[in-house]
Amino acid sequence: MIRLIHLPACLRMVAALTWSTSLAAAAEKEPPPHPSVGQRFLPTDVDWSHPVYATTFDNEAALADWKLEGGQRMSIASGRLVLESRPGGEKPRATDNDLVCWLAKEMPADFLLEFKVRPQDRKHGLNIIFFNARGIHGESIFDPKLKPRSGIFAQYHSGDLNNYHISYWAGERGTANVRKNAGFHLVATGKDLVSPAPADSFQTIRLYKRGSTIQLMVNDVIAVAFDDDGKTHGPVWTHPGWIGLRQMAHTTHCEYDDLQVLPLNP
Fold it and tell me: Domain 31-262, CATH 3.40.50.300 — does that match?
């Protein structure tokens, strides 16, 4: 039995929330993988010539486009974006050692996000992409009326933001998941294709979003996909919004490169 009586009240409350969230997640019925999982896919409706945003992270000036919440630091090293949390981050935790690094520019509702990623230890950690993120009343995610955020997970999935998120790399878990927020609704499962790759390699991640269709590819292979019916968990998120790169604390250190957001042709 876990005894919390010696913890300060604020930590008891956070621990209780973490425990109840874990129980709810464990009780969820996992949806079956989409039929397209495992297929190769390169969308044909992408305007590759006119990126909405693109960076190769070749110098420190690229950091001006990004806003870090939580974690330890973001930096540029060897022409790559590096996101870090303090070493020793593990579950359970009641800290802000998780992080979200937002692209500070608003992106269109429909897009292709592409980047390269290399975790320091691909068997230990978990990375997420937030997308189509807005306040629940349509606000910018940086609107001062929204509650402050510090990297704690519940602030992003069960607070005052609407968004989708995909855990595309999950260490030893083996699955890639799609959730719809606010509410932390598990709506799709697939395969984690990042963990099995060679330790020193970069994978190319592509996230395709058009209307109700969401597909995430790793090296052109669909890892997870979701067709939002617009009913089960509320309307399809068809609004423009913000994209964020999330690392759980136990990721500790991860590199990103050659990131771009591309518009889709009509």
Answer: no
